[in-house]
Amino acid sequence: MAPFLPTDCLSQIFRNLEKDQKSLYSCILVNRLWCATSIEFLWSRPFHFLYTCLSTCPCDEFMRIERSSKLIQVYLSCLNEKEKSILMENKVRLPSSVKQKPLFDYAGFIRYLDLDEFYTAVRDWIEFAHVVSKEDEICEAMESRKKSKKNKKLKLSTVVKFLTKSMKYHDKRKSMSDRESVSSVSTGHSCTSSTSGSNPPPSPILPHPRERLITEYLCKLLMRRSTTLKQLSIDKTHLTRMEGSRCTTLPPLIDRFNNHRFIPDQYLSLPSYPGAINCLPHLSEFICTTRQSKTKLFDSLCEVSHHIHTIVVTMNYHSNGWCGTRSRREVMELEDEAKSLANLISSQRSLQNFELHHCEVGSTVIIQSLQTQSKSLRSICFDSVSFWGWDPLTSLSKCILLQKLVFRSCHGLTCELLEPLTKTKFRNLSTFLMDNSSAPAHSLNMMIKTSGYSIQTLNLGQFKPHPQSTIHVIKTVANYCPNLTTFSSYVDGDEIDHLIALFTLCVNLSSVTLTGPRNSEIEIDGMFFQLARQDLSNLQELNILGAWSFKSESLRQFLMCSKAPIHTLSIDNCYFTDDHLDVVIHCLKNTLKSLRLRLHIRNRLNEESVIRAKRLVDVLEIENFDNYRVSNNNNNNGGEGIFKQKFCKKYWMERRIR
């Protein structure tokens, strides 16, 4: 037997750990072979690792800036001697470690690059190393103001105010650096401001030639050395990271005036730098959810990247116009951007996933471009899109191989818009979601009849259909979706019988979310008694959200006789007492792992029942509300308080071990 695993086997193992920074760091300390094999995975997403905190963020601003500076210094050391000498000739102070040649080609390992994180790291290093002095910043700002057409005449008070503010900021930064006893370190952070007119705000330009020079060389380095970049993103909605994992010391993406933080044009021009033709042809995922102009970025990517499988994009500018109105110039820029996006989509050879956010202008040309990818598209998602005024989705009906179709927080889903989809049979459609959206019952009914056989995950929305509609979509689902495993829908009182039929005919149901009215209570004791006669051995998750009323005895019959191995149970706005909680603890003591209760203040549970529930489940969340506002009757001050308990067994066990 060989004493060491082959390099190919180690690569496969480390590839499964590429999102686990801690494990990869441990691997490079084992021996030379493990270090040489795992180092490329550890450095495949350095900026993502840099600004990700998996638990409670322990960072402060100085710690973040120091880490960012060390990372940028590693990349600066990868520059060639000519580039380093040019930087020093331009009075860029490089530390001695940068002048030495690195052990590995770190710039060639990067596979996942977020331009916003890259920009933040560069700015942190510039402040850390005092690349630009305060005098240079002030002079540069004054020169830019003099050249500005809008500010030809500067008042003396404005100049004094600007100089005073700048001096205070730099004095504060210097004092903080002195306290830390680290030379040439600053803990201030800069936030790129965005214009606040009705026109689309332009991308900011780096304020100093030295910063522009550093950015240019670093971008050229990444394009020159990295030959297999897989993901390029400007992620403003945290699609590429877990919820709550973003470092809290980072500059806010949106300020208190609702202005978005933009990145300079030098970063958006990344695909135009020399070497991009060798770096970006293998790009497989492109995520761009920023609200700044992206026309040049789309055009440059269209020329070098033709194998993108996933495109996620936001088509919207920040507008301060009255009631969201847009100027003619803004509409024209959005139309040009939509055409550039359409060209990018059409230039791909096998686009599989497309996700569109906030599209108001240029929708027709974008939807028509999807028809060019009809043979490869597998997933289409619309997020926060207003469909009012859109043409019918005829081009989507050509994508007959769709496996996933999602409408999330969308408006304007009319019968005319969805008519082409109702007449098309999507044989492979397994996921159909109307998440926080509402569509006509007639359209949903027709789509389920034509494509329901293959649907496994179905969400009909959390809103009640048209009150005058006599079509019961749940009845159609029960008859046409035999392979359904995950179901979510609004259920009214007259649809209880159809819901029972759904449980009877869809025997593979594993997750069910029922949303009901918030005011008038609906008694479901009869439904529980009838479901108790069925075998629900596959049901693992049950969420009951709404004014449902049921007795503890009917709940006990349902949980005991149906033999449902429920491990996640959520109750919201229902009549739920200590007797109900005791039934849950007794019947699900071997399977329940997560219990979430959101109850009215009159149904507040006693402490003994809560303690017993804590011993049973891993995650327990209890929230009491009064008139849809969280409150606490035990507030001795007479004001409104909060009663919310959240218990996680794993967290408390880890804390106890420490």
From TrEMBL:
In terms of Gene3D superfamilies, this protein maps to: Ribonuclease Inhibitor
Under the heading Pfam families, the entry gives:
F-box-like (PF12937)
The UniProt annotation puts the region (Disordered) at 170-208
Low complexity composition-biased segments: 182-198
Q: Which residues form the F-box domain?
A: 5-47
- Top-level taxon of origin: Eukaryota
Enumerate the InterPro entries for this protein.
F-box-like_dom_sf, F-box_dom, LRR_dom_sf
- Identify this protein by name: F-box domain-containing protein
